[in-house]
Amino acid sequence: MGGGGDGSDGKRGFVFVKDFQAEEDGIAMAEARCLDAIRSALENLEDQLEFFHAIKSQQRTERDATMVRLGQSRSILARRVAEHQGKKYIVIEMA
Fold it and tell me: Which of 93, 72, 71, 69 minimizes the C-alpha distance to 81?
């Protein structure tokens, strides 16, 4: 009784294909390369996000400092205009 596909030959219904392992290894390697590329892209994205966060923080600090200087300039200008008490100067009229 060793013939046919009844499993009596010790293989129990499995079909063995020549070079199947090599094909499977190739698929595994392709998946590994793909996952590595994804990981690399995510690391690059993380670096870019950190960079943009640092830039945004720097810009916010610069904007805040500029707003403080602008407020100080406005106060100085308002005080100087008040000191002139209605005197006409060309510079004031142009402003």
Answer: 93
Print burial letters for 16-54: b (CB count within 10 Å at least 16), e (below 16): eeeeeeeeeeeeeeeeeeeeeeeeeeeeeeeeeeeeeee
Residues 41-61, mean pLDDT to the nearest whole number:
97
Return the ∠ at Cα 76 (arms to 87 and 89), rounded to 5°: 20
Q: How far is CA 23 from the centre of its chain?
A: 36
- List the one residue out of 3, 20, 19, 23 whose CA is nearest residue 11: 3
Q: Residue holding tokens 């640092």? A: 54
Q: Which amino acid is at 11?
A: K
Mean pLDDT of 61-69: 97
